C-alpha cells in the first residue's frame, strides 16, 4: 500500500526526469545549430567562391569554425558547463568585430565575407547566451541534466 507521500515523491521524480529530458534536448538543438554555424564558417569560402582578396578573413573563419565545431560536438558527449559557452560567446563576438579588426571592409571587391562573418557571429552570440541562460535556470532549479 502506497502512501500519499510515496505517490507525490514518484510524481516529483517523473517531473524532474521530464525536465531533464527537455533540457538535454534543448542543449542538443543548440549544439546542432552551433555545428551548422561552424560548418558554414569552414566551408563558405569554397562554396561561395570568394575571391582571394580577403585571405585573412578566410583564415579567421576557418579557425573560429574549427573551434566552435569542436566545442559544439563535445556538447553531445559531455554536459556543457559555463566555459564552453563563454568560448563560443567570445568567438561570436570576435566574428562580429573581425571585419573591422582585420580591415576586410576596405577590400576592392565586396565578396560577402563581412556580412556572413557578422551574421554568424550574431547567431553564435545568441546561441551561447541562450545556453548560458538555460544553464543558470537549470542550476537554480537543481537540475543539471
Automatic annotation (TrEMBL):
The keyword Transmembrane helix applies. Residues 32-128 form the SPW repeat-containing integral membrane domain. InterPro entries: SPW (IPR005530). The keyword Transmembrane applies. It holds the Pfam family SPW. The chain crosses the membrane at residues 29-50, 62-79, 86-103, 115-135. Keywords: Membrane, Transmembrane, Transmembrane helix. This is SPW repeat-containing integral membrane domain-containing protein.
